[in-house]
Specification:
This protein has one domain. The protein is built from three helices and no strands. It has helices spanning 6-27, 33-43, 54-82. Helix 1 (6-27) runs antiparallel to helix 3. The longest helix has 29 residues, at 54-82.
Amino acid sequence: MGSLSIGKYAGLCVLGGEVAYLICDAYGWFLTGSALELHSALFALLPGYGAGNAVGVLAGAVSIALWSGLGGAYVAWVHNVSIKK
């Protein structure tokens, strides 16, 4: 297996993170009771997130994008460093 492009891999991780974020956020509208409380508590961990607030949802999306990109870049870098030449 060859080396990974750090930028491309990080970009794909950002895309995947944003898709998962939007699906999870939309899924929260169908929850009730303790499942909704847990869902809200987990999303409250995102800086600036606010359910039903466009600015809060955008702040959560930016947070997810940053962490996904950093994580993807790190994984690609570790992969590239570990390849035996």
